[in-house]
Amino acid sequence: MRTLYTWVCILITVVAAAAGDVLVALAMRRIGDLGELRQRHGFLAVIARVLSSGVLFGGVFFMAIAFFSNLVGLSWADLSVVGPASAALTFVTNALGAKFFLHENVDRRRWLATIFVCFGVLLLTWS
Amino acid sequence: MTLRKYLVILAVVFFGSVGDAFLARGMKHADAIDIHHLAYVFVALADPFVILGIIFLLGFMSSYMTALSFADLTYVLPATAISYVVMVLLSIFWLHEHVSAQRWLGVAFIVTGVGVVAGGPSRTEHPATRASDPAHVSDAAIEERG
Q1: Structure pTM?
Q2: What is the pLDDT of residues B69-100, one digit of tens each?
Q3: Sign of the dihedral through C-alpha B131, B135, B139, B142
Q4: Do the Cβ atoms of A124 and B77 come within 8 Å?
Q5: Interface pTM (ipTM) of the complex?
Q6: How far does CA B145 lie from the centroid of its chain?
Q7: Are A94 and B74 a contacting pair at CB < 8 A?
């Protein structure tokens, strides 16, 4: 039964993490390069611009759900199981989210890298 | 990609993997959380290792947001996947978990994936004229609003 709970936790973590990543990436793209902004407008302006983004807080909310779900999962299984399993599935859902919601150019190189990383993470999980 | 940007990616790797290891160590101290008493997860927040883990994950979050401000999500995620290799090393030397040959093969795949994505462009260029695209706001528009 604990295995089932662990995988439910992993599923919640994956969905929430993907939603969080896509929303945070969208917010940061709208805000712009933080390094350049800091050089032009100063550190406080960067903080103000980041804190004024509602999309960012939406992303952080989903990331918090993923965090607590991950924490519960870690109490039931090893880090070397929960961490990689969540990550492998999150890589695929994130790539899809980035392609369809963020309109990123997910070319052959990035799919190949995603598949390599995903497969590597699965090997870590299933050993 | 400048040296500063590579350092930001490195900071994502460092804070993420060390933070996760602290959390795992802290959660090993706590009893397994009962499905009917999920609120006990908040009790685990008092563990010093969990607190350290959260501090490191705040560092992870700020460096991750900085990375996403200059690079695509599909670049940042595979590029920072090297943190799983760090996690395996921490599992061996700190948490004393067993790492088999199959896991080392997994590590090799991850390193290859990171190498593949790191050689490509970090950012998708969106035409500045696409003002109607909610995913794109030009720098000029940001300046205007600021």
Answers
A1: 0.74
A2: 989 888 888 888 888 788 788 778 877 777 78
A3: positive
A4: no
A5: 0.79
A6: 31
A7: yes
* Inter-chain touch A72–B33, beta carbons under 8 Å: yes
Residue B107 to residue A98, Cβ atoms within 8 A: no
**Residues in chain A, total:** 127
Binary contact (A25, B72; C-beta < 8 A): yes
Residue whose C-alpha is closest to residue B49's, from B18, B16, B10, B87: B18
Q: In 3-state terms, what secondary structure has residue A72? A: helix
From B55's Cα to the closest Cα of chain A, the distance in A is 13
Q: Which of A127, A120, A83, A114 is nearest to B109 (CA)?
A: A120
Q: Give how far B76 is from chain A: nearest CA, Å.
A: 10
Task: Determine the residue type at A55.
Answer: V
Chain B residues within 8 A of A87 when measuring between CB atoms: 81, 84
Task: Identify the CA nearest to B72 among candidates A105, A63, A17, A18.
Answer: A105
Between helices B82-93 and B3-29, what is the axis angle to 10°?
A: 40
Q: Count Cβ atoms within 10 A of the Cβ of residue A38 and give its class: 0-12 exposed, 13-18 middle, 19 or more buried.
A: middle
Sorted by where each begins, the domain ranges of chain A are: 2-126
